[in-house]
Write a sequence for this structure.
């Protein structure tokens, strides 16, 4: 592999070496500009979060603060109750994820392994979920959740997030297909029931898919704004994201505290991204290829 | 019927019961309700729904100028994002080339898509702010004081300010999709073409673009769908203002329902949005195929 690569690199550069060098310098310049663009709003916010209101008024935005002024962060944690938001977010993510993982893998397995009446109908119903525009759905879902009595409880977002969707079923199905049916059959001969086959054999083998889907779903739920905002107006049910929205509306103009809140809310997603980026890339690409 | 068949049937029912019930309740039923409500003057609260036929649709088409102003703003998102697609493809090509630190650059490029969008929206609010906002301060610092603007309250500029946030957040998504497409092209084909004397533009036109036609098609579809559904950025940053200057079709629809309690009208807008997404993506797909062949 290594050898092949180096052969590949030599040939084009021998043919037009100058050209290759210019394009690669240009490539670095472009990528560095992009890096600056990506970091600029974040860096400015990080700097502002360590400044006093007066400093923000005088200082150049890219002037580095001393990083010893922590008052803004203290405010975010004490008066802002961001930890309550964090706790609520984690609770919603964990419960939705467990439910969603089982529902998604069970659906994919059943639809892949068995032939039965209504199978096509069920598949078609999942397609509807892909077509309906996202935010607009809530206009029709809101009265329903209201009448189910889950409005202003955590059950509202959890029920919505737990439901499986076409992309998830599609990715699980790709993995289920790779598991040989003969494995199911030999387990049956050993006296395993269908339930046993799924929970003891299939589900553990689906772990890579579960990891990918779980991480993407967790990030989606943590970042979701509109569902918690719409269905959980109670201040006790703030997620991290809706806590931040509260900050913005109640402390309009006090950029130093809002900046600290922005950074605190960014950190968990940045952390998850850095640690699990392989899974995230895999999931995004796998989900996109289906269409 | 033998016991195995019975067991199989029990299993299928057990495993699909909850997912299908959830699907019927939270996806299919609301979808049907959206169509039904669009033919009523429902306020979202009262038990009775008065059936008024297509009156909402007529009203929307002939008497609600603001919703079409909002849709025009969706058009801005669509066009600007569309113009950036070649650049995104170029970045993907760079990330697929032999440059050093490409892992690092790939991580950076995709970071905006994954991190919390609400936090980013507010970070940009600060960036654009007329009071101590970073952008105006930076312009001043480099002697471009004349270029300072009220980025979020000037009707002529506000949409472009918001589109920049959208580009910042979502361009990386397209890049990653293009990159996955590029990585699936066998490298020896490209190298053979170079050895045979193909120049860069021939390489792109004859090999790269046709090989990733499916990805391009998907990106174009996502772009159309995303642009027609823009909601969170204007909702968080400007609330659609000043006036309706930065409103979008979805923002206007959500407002109609939850701020003005006109669920009937909002439902008809929702149905219209659905139809627009289907028709416009279909037209775009046709155009793309035509260009591809010609």
């Amino acid at each position: 592999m290594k050898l092949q690569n180096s052969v590949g690199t030599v040939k084009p550069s021998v043919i037009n070496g100058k050209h290759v060098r210019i394009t690669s310098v240009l490539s670095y310049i472009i990528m560095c500009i992009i890096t600056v663009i990506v970091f600029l709003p974040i860096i400015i916010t990080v700097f502002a979060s360590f400044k006093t209101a007066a400093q923000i008024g005088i200082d150049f935005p890219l002037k580095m603060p001393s990083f010893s002024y922590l008052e803004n962060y203290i405010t975010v944690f004490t008066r802002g109750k961001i930890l309550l938001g964090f706790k609520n977010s984690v609770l919603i993510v964990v419960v939705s994820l467990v439910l969603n993982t089982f529902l998604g893998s069970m659906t994919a397995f059943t639809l892949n392994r068995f032939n039965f009446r209504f199978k096509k109908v069920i598949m078609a119903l999942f397609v509807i979920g892909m077509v309906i525009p996202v935010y607009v759905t809530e206009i029709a879902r809101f009265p329903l959740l209201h009448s189910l009595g889950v409005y202003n409880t955590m059950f509202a977002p959890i029920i919505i997030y737990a439901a499986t969707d076409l992309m998830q079923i599609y990715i699980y199905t790709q993995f289920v297909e790779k598991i040989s049916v003969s494995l199911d059959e030999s387990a049956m001969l050993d006296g395993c029931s269908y339930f046993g086959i799924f929970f003891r054999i299939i589900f553990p083998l689906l772990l890579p898919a579960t990891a990918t889907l779980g991480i993407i779903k967790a990030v989606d739920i943590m970042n979701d704004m509109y569902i918690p905002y719409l269905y959980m107006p109670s201040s006790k049910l703030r997620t991290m994201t809706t806590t931040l929205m509260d900050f913005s509306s109640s402390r309009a103009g006090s950029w130093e505290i809002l900046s600290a809140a922005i950074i605190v809310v960014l950190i968990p997603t940045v952390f998850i991204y850095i640690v699990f980026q392989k899974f995230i890339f895999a999931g995004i690409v796998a989900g996109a290829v289906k269409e | 019927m033998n016991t195995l068949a019975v067991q199989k049937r029990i299993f299928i029912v057990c495993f699909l019961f909850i997912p299908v019930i959830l699907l019927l309740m939270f996806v299919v039923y609301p979808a049907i309700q959206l169509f039904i409500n669009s033919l009523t003057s429902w306020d979202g609260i009262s038990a009775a729904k008065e059936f008024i036929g297509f009156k909402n649709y007529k009203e929307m088409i002939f008497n609600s100028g603001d919703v079409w102003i909002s849709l025009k703003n969706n058009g801005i998102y669509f066009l600007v994002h569309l113009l950036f697609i070649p650049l995104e493809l170029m970045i993907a090509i760079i990330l697929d080339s032999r440059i050093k630190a490409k892992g690092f650059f790939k991580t950076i490029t995709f970071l905006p898509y994954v991190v919390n969008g609400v936090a980013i929206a507010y970070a940009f609010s600060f960036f654009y702010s007329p009071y101590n906002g970073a952008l105006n301060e930076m312009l001043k610092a480099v002697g471009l004081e004349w270029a300072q603007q009220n980025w979020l309250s000037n009707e002529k500029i506000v949409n472009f300010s918001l589109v920049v946030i959208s580009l910042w957040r979502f361009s990386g998504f397209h890049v990653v999709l293009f990159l996955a497409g590029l990585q699936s092209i066998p490298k020896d084909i490209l190298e053979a073409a170079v050895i045979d004397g193909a120049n860069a533009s021939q390489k792109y036109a004859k090999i790269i673009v046709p090989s990733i036609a499916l990805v391009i098609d998907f990106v174009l579809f996502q772009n159309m769908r995303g642009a027609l559904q823009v909601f969170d950025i204007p909702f968080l940053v400007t609330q659609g203002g000043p006036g309706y200057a930065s409103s979008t079709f979805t923002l206007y629809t959500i407002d109609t329902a939850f701020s003005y309690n006109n669920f009937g009208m909002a439902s008809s807008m929702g149905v219209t949005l659905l139809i627009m997404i289907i028709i416009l993506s279909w037209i775009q797909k046709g155009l793309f195929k035509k260009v591809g062949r010609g």
